[in-house]
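[job 0412] stage=fold_complex status=start
inputs:
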Amino acid sequence: MNAGTHRPTIIEVDAQAIRENIHHEIKRLHQGNDLFAVIKANGYGHGLIEVAHFVVEAGATGFCVAILDEALELRSAGFSQPILILGIVEPQYAQLLADNKISVAVGSLAWLEEATKVLQSDQPLRVHLALDTGMGRIGFQDRDELKPAIDYLQAHSEQLLFEGIFTHFSTADELDDRYFKLQLSRFNEFMSVVPKRPRYVHVANSATSLWHQVCEGNMIRFGIALYGLNPSGEAIPSPYVLKPAMAVSSELVFTKRLKKGRSVGYGATYTAQEDEWIGTVPIGYADGYPRNLQGFHVLVDGQFCEIVGRVCMDQLMIRLPREYAVGSKVVLVGKSGDQEIKMEEVAEAAHTISYEIVCGFSARIPRIYLHNQKS
Ligand SMILES: *Cc1c(COP(=O)(O)O)cnc(C)c1O
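[job 0412] stage=fold_complex status=done
writing structure:
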């Protein structure tokens, strides 16, 4: 897609914020435990390769991604750190995975059997066994299913390397920890049939690491919090200050005095109650700014301005407190004067989570990196 380099709408990514979030987290880990940065989906919209550099500078020792292409892009860019693909890769790509030293999540014996059919034995494929303790997404269902897979790995150690074992919690970002504890006890049951722990045992995403200092495991899969976003939205405070890395801004490209009684936007859902100043901002739902944010706000000159009328595909309209010049800065996410709009607030107003907002910003918005030279 074409990035809009001749349009004032931009995403700024603060590399120093990412480094600081990682530093804070590493300080809380047991000595020697690894932090793998989760940079799937273009680094949650922040830029895959750029974020990979920042997290390595800050001490991350590996990466997690979702799909094979993301892993290959990291290898092409020269990253030699461990990379774990968290989703299922088709077994036909087993040799490609092995050649590139890319580790993969596996949730069935059948997958291992398929993979060994295509694997040469010069370079073993690194396997992380996924345990379904209650997420219900991928993974072995119980010990009886797991045991034969472990035996199979042992019997095929020329082709397959049992590198890791893991699970994923579905409620780690909630105050009620009953389901979390149920998953944890299932995890421990699974582990009772693992004869020798592999190199990596990992259970923690951001929320688990922030709020459940579970000792199981020697690696964490740290995602949303490295971007400075609270996994719970605003429900549970973070144990340290998370510094948001992403800011979204634009400029007024058109302003007018709208006469009382005139309407704005598709469906004419907003009508001026009096003569008022209306500004047009060049960002819309094609850029990933949610369409349902009519009534939410942006910042101009440190003041909240309501979004009036429906958000269009490429533009939206705001009510200004007074006349502002074309070219005035508009902050959609981030700080302006003494005020701030947080990504979590945008998400809440759009009835979703910050994850969906950040990874939904399209390639049409250029990413600009601040503090990307390590000082
Ligand atoms: C995406 C993902 C993570 C990262 O989760 P955050 O909440 O962003 O920290 C960790 N583990 C798995 C299996 C994932 O799919």
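[job 0412] summary: The mean pLDDT is 97.
[job 0412] exit 0
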